Amino acid sequence: MIPLTLTLSHKAERRTECSLKDRTVVTGVIGADSHSIGNWILQYALREAGFEVVALGILVSQEDFIHAAIETDAAAILVSSIYGHGILDCEGFREKCEEAGLKGMLLYAGGNLVVGKHDWGEVERKFKEMGFDRVYPPNTLPATAIADLKNDIIARRSNCSTRP
After folding, report:
1. Range 16-158 has CATH code 3.40.50.280
2. pTM of the model
3. Strand, helix or coil at 141?
4. Which of 22, 35, 85, 148 is an active site residue?
5. Contact of 81 with 111, CB cutoff 8 Å
6. Per residue in 125-157, pLDDT tens?
7. Which segments of 11-85 does DSSP mark as H helices, in order?
8. pLDDT tens figures, 97-109
């Protein structure tokens, strides 16, 4: 694989937290996970709510999410994982985003993020420590994530003193 820092477009260099398009989001199923139904439902709900969805599908690497976010000037990356290894697949994601010029990118994760039964509060805490803005347990309705996404985009927009 070509190192991420060598393959980025010039768009990342000019990106600031306040230059995000408000309606474009990147979705996909991270890592070696091939579960797709929940992600399709989320994509449908996002489109119905007025978002432009860049759907990467299954078996998506962190680098693929990041490249898509840069190329589309996305407002957020929504990562799904059902097979239980999301906590491993998402390690270092925030750092890679920042290295790629995506400082402040909204990062959401949802699904069955860990193997076995764990206290959800601990799972959420770990993902937030890894830099994710929102973390959703299994069976969360898309409307919950969509409402949070709209609120987070509005909050980000209101925190910008100037808009390009």
Report:
1. yes
2. 0.85
3. coil
4. 35
5. yes
6. 999 999 999 999 999 999 999 999 999 999 988
7. 11-14, 37-48, 62-72
8. 999 999 999 999 9
